[in-house]
Design brief:
Helix content: 25-40%
Structural class: alpha+beta
Number of strands: 10
Shape: elongated
Number of helices: 10
Radius of gyration: 22 Å
Strand content: 15-25%
Length: 282
């Protein structure tokens, strides 16, 4: 998976009930990317890579590529990564409207460095999402072209151990990178993710939990922020740089400060901010 950029603070927009789960209970929930609002999650990058590479191949090489993808991605649609999402943007109108109950929720500002340490320790590394409109300039394009030509040249011998291993390693990287690319129409989110590998999820994250709604049941995994913070030798309150009350929220600064004090995190009372975003609720 790709590493993170150098942002020092990342923002998570949500409602107050979820804020309670994150800050008070010390849990952040990782949701199935295949069930999020981008219908091309985990598919976009692979599709665009194939389109780009095919332009550089002969008909014989193109047929070989189709066969390689069919053989090595036959189980891909059954795989899912689970993620918690963050943005580079503070007090952003689009984020308030989309993820924080139309501005009636809250935005939690996280210390990016500590969040990255927690992600690494919890088998859900913090990664930056790529919104490239094409794969033309990516080194993986030339790498795939060379691999396909090697397979064509090998013919019936492509199952020999060295080449077979190279093919398996390439497609493993392709699958694990797939959650980190999104269609450029989502670029305004400037997203980072705590994201799991798309296979053996239970092995790394433990047993799943289930969120039951009136019309749906959603599976998720839990990353325990408080426990991992303690194991890393950090104060839990250090993880949170600011808690911003949404522009349409009914909660006051004083009430939120009293709430944090009552739940054993009085340090957060001085980190509360009121949004300056002039978002109007219709």
């Amino acid at each position: 998976m790709n590493g993170c950029g150098e942002r020092t603070t990342l923002y998570h927009y949500t409602d107050f009930n979820a804020m309670r789960g994150i800050i008070t209970n010390g849990e952040i929930w990782l949701w199935n990317l295949r069930r999020m609002n981008d219908s091309q999650e985990m598919k976009y990058f692979i599709r665009e890579l194939k389109v780009t590479v095919k332009k550089r191949l002969s008909p014989e090489e193109s047929a070989c590529m189709d066969l390689l993808f069919a053989e090595n991605l036959k189980d891909f649609d059954s795989l899912s990564s689970y993620a918690a999402c963050f943005s580079e943007y503070a007090d952003d109108a689009a984020q308030w409207a989309r993820y924080a109950k139309n501005g009636m929720g809250v935005c939690i500002a996280f210390n990016r460095g500590l969040l990255a340490q927690i992600g690494d320790a919890g088998h859900a590394p913090l990664c930056q999402v790529n919104y490239a409109g094409s794969c033309d300039d990516m080194p993986i394009v030339q790498e795939l072209c060379e691999l396909i030509r090697e397979c064509v040249h090998a013919g019936s011998r492509k199952d020999e151990a060295p080449l077979s291993g190279k093919i398996s390693e390439f497609f493993n990287r392709l699958i694990t990178s797939s959650p980190l690319f999104k269609h450029p129409s989502f670029i305004s989110e400037k997203e980072y993710r705590l994201v799991s590998l798309p296979y053996n999820v239970n092995e790394y994250l433990g047993e799943p939990r289930f969120f039951v709604e009136e019309t749906n049941i959603k599976k998720y995994y839990v990353l325990n922020l408080r426990t991992v913070c303690k194991s890393l030798g950090h104060s839990y309150s250090e993880l949170f740089e600011q808690v911003c009350i949404g522009p349409q929220a009914r909660v006051t600064r004083d009430v939120l400060a009293d709430y944090f004090a009552s739940t054993g995190i009085p340090e957060l009372r001085d980190k509360i901010k009121i949004s300056e975003c002039p978002l109007r609720r219709f």
